Amino acid sequence: MRAGERLDVGHLDVEGYEQVVRCRDAASGLHAIVAVHSTVLGPALGGTRFHAYDEPDEALTDVLRLARGMTYKASVSGLDLGGGKAVILGDPDLLRTDELVLAYGRFVDSLGGAYVTAEDVGTTQADMDLIRSVTPHVTGVSESLGGSGDPSPATALGLLHALRAAAAHRFGTDDLSGVHVAVSGVGKVGSVVVEHLAVAGARVTVADVDATRVADAVRAHGVEVASPAAIHTVTCDVFSPCALGGILNAATIPDLRCAVVCGSANNQLLERADGDRLAAAGVLYVPDYVVNAGGIINIAEELGGYDAARAGERIAAISTTTAEVLRLADDEGTTPAEAADRLAERRVAAAAGRTGD
Ligand code: NAD
Fold this sequence. Notes:
Elements: E1 8-12, E2 19-25, E3 30-38, E4 44-51, H1 56-76, E5 82-89, H2 92-95, H3 98-110, E6 115-119, H4 125-132, H5 152-171, E7 180-184, H6 190-199, E8 203-207, H7 211-221, E9 224-225, E10 238-241, E11 260-261, H8 273-280, E12 284-285, H9 288-291, H10 294-300, H11 308-316, H12 318-332, H13 336-351
Parallel strand pairs: 4-5, 4-6, 7-8, 7-10, 8-9, 10-11, 11-12
Antiparallel strand pairs: 1-2, 2-3, 3-5
Helix pairs in contact: 1-13, 3-4, 5-6, 5-10, 5-12, 6-7, 12-13
The chain binds nicotinamide-adenine-dinucleotide.
């Protein structure tokens, strides 16, 4: 049987997107949507989110928003990749079977490489390994399969590069010794960020809803501790959100006591106006998708045969990208969030053979 042959696949027409494809597989219970926002710069790389959405429409909204975001992240990061994303609808704890994951892999394969998948919330490296058995269009597989493993350390390293560039921009030096950083969320990314900060001689305060993770950070690095509800109010140089999105909003921004925000969490601004609120409050916001691109930069390296040294160089370039975004914001009298979007859009427009803006 050819890949994708027995899958029930339907195309949705969504303006601004190259392809939005829904797939159902009665035998395994698979219901998935892949959104390819743009392949102008290259294949659309983005993770597969496996989540129990309340409504199918909510899944569609999510996958469209996420796919578009991936176009911006890949573009601003200088990757020759487009933006895409996928969702599998349902509770992964109840629905995940090898049969379903393999059916999903065949669905990805049926798109012929326009979409390249990866791990995201609700999917695991083991899922990616299984998908690899039916399609080459998957990244983030195990190191034993030629993959690059967990992207979190790469994301954390990228954050450090972004933070140094932001410090140079704001404080006139990229030396982090004595710089006070408040880290919200010390999970897979945040815990490694804290390690790097400790090595760099920074003063660190952490918060996490998981007391074990806080205790681990205190034991390993002697960090200070704040409550999860108050970490953004800590008087510090840098606030680093590494937990949830939407943390920067009309309610929290007036309470910030930092000069810079630089963290890994996706979608930190609750709404676009929060970028303006941060600027008005005198806080330098380093756009989340510039800061947290280390993970995708790392897995993108798998497409040409993974080379850790080359990946490291590309992750280090987040420093240059950050500096460029912050400079553009100053030059064009706009916010860094807006500047990052402009930079990303200009690169896509140039590749599409149009002029920028
Ligand atoms: P994770 O689940 O390992 O860690 C998140 C941590 O935040 C956990 O320790 C959790 O207990 C804590 N947390 C949850 N709610 C909190 C709250 N209200 N206050 C303080 N802490 C809270 O996730 P992760 O992989 O470390 O990712 C962190 C963030 O970075 C997420 O927003 C993720 O989308 C984003 N991100 C991660 C990667 C990556 O490579 N892992 C890449 C890009 C973006």
